[in-house]
Sequence to fold (140 residues):
Amino acid sequence: MAIERTLSIIKPDATNRNLTGKINAKFEEAGLRIVAQKRIHLTKEQAGKFYAVHAERPFYDELCEFMASAPVVAQVLEGEGAIAKNREVMGATNPADAEAGTIRAEFAESVGENSVHGSDAPETAAEEISFFFAGIEIVG
Ligand code: CMP
Fold:
């Protein structure tokens, strides 16, 4: 399998509870390398741009409000099949459906406050990485 990069975000519910290190340990234990990382406080407008694909969904406003409510940690994860592997480590979007041992099963509070975001495909990974990082900031 090819070496891939994917965009990960540790969301406000997790940064509020000081879970960045525990979540990063899950990534690293799964063989994913954190090759870029920054802690930022998004504006609601920036969150809206990032999640523009969900603009028509009923939860869009709530999602943008939440993502701008506290700092997030944006990161690039690298590894073999990193996009699928990260989704495996995160678990299902709704923590009620997430498998035991996954980040969302252990830490997420609800479908909205679900601790982490991860890109879902190679094209979105490339777009989402460039939303947060310049090439020079990614050090593999
Ligand atoms: P994420 O992987 O970041 O992509 C879009 C996000 O929308 C998703 O995780 C959830 O946090 C959020 N989301 C999905 N469904 C709902 C919902 N029914 N109510 C609130 N937020 C949701």
About this structure: Helices lie at 12-16, 20-29, 44-50, 60-67, 82-90, 103-107, 122-132. The chain has a mean pLDDT of 98.
